Amino acid sequence: MDDFYIAGHPSPEKESRRVNYFKHAGEWKPSLDGLDRNLGRAAFLCNQYGDAVPPLSRYLENHANDATARSALGLSLFHVGECQKVIEILDPIKSAVESNPELSNAYATARAKIKQ
Asked: Taking the CB of the first residue and of the last residue of the chain, which one, N or C, has fewer CB atoms within 10 A?
């Protein structure tokens, strides 16, 4: 995966400031290219999973093949307890899920919870 998962990413405090910058940018110009991906990324990196879900969902409506954004959305949904949606979001990228322990755990746990 790309920049969502690189080691040594900025601190949660810095990402939290970025979340606020992107929110303000969205108020200024909601159609700003890349806004939803960047806002979702920043929220995801500072563990604001509920805040990451809406922009990443909107972004994927037009960029369905972005496996990195799809992975972050899947993990965010997992952290907010949306197990059925985790499966729906991660199914199209099963090969990436299988090669990433964090994604594999979220996917398998979500499937197990759905079957109960």
From this structure: C
pLDDT digits 0-9 by tens, 15-54: 666 666 666 556 656 666 788 998 899 889 889 999 999 9
Contact 83, 107 (CB under 8 A): no
Distance of CA 16 to the CA centre of its chain: 15
Contacts of 35 (CB under 8 A, 6+ apart): 22, 25, 26, 29, 55
Class of domain 12-115: mainly alpha
Q: Which residue has the tokens 């369905």?
A: 64
> Residue 66: what are its φ and ψ, rounded to 5°?
-80, 95
Q: Is 81 exposed, middle or buried (0-12, 13-18, 19+ CB in 10 A)?
A: exposed
Residue ranges per structural domain of the chain: 12-115
For the record, the structure tokens of 17 come out as 């400031």
